Amino acid sequence: MSGDGLALLAQRLQALQDDGVKLNPATANPAPLGLYGFALTTALLQGSKTQLTEPKGTAQMAVSFGFFFGGLAQFCAGLLEYQRRNTFGTVAFCCYGAFWMSLAIFTTLSAAGVFVATPEKGDRLMLTLWGILTFLLWLCTFHTNLVTCWLFLSLAILFWLLAGGVGTSSERVTLTKFAGGWGFMVAAVAFYDGTAALMKDVYGKQILPVFPLKPVNKVSLGDFGTKRFVEQA
User: Which residues cross the membrane (predicted)?
Assistant: First the structure.
């Protein structure tokens, strides 16, 4: 091969390296599916928490979506992230997919009388633990982007607000309503993050800014579903 041919090949290889797996991905980016499943189901539940909609009926509807869209679809997105060697995406989507399916089955069996009604202290402990788990996941987002980083931090705060609002006193009811409003914001961030990833994949360029953070230890996850190893200057 001539020198010009080698130079052209080197340029093409460099272009592939710069674009990472996004140019010819092994699989489609599952992140928008997972983020949409999380966002819509979360927003639906907040209608019940804020009492902007019928609390009981809306909660039941959210539980129904929790089985499939928030649960199964999000869990499948996590499995697809595994195919892309994205450990963070796998853990995050599988965790929250399993959360929604677990919440849905518990609520269904409680309504059927198989399980006892949700205990207040147990509910508070469960939400607190999920806040801790989400906080630990947030610690792994410093190589992603500002939108994703804020999504996990705000979600951890949401779990803790919901935990504090468990109960029937007026103060706890007020806190639950505030948590519901906060939850709408969390859902909006997830919708934005998912749409940004989807539009970039569809149009081949970044349409909605997500403000990528600097790589950590030569690893970048600027797009939720795309992991890159980079050379730091």
Answer: 61-80, 92-118, 124-142, 149-167, 179-199
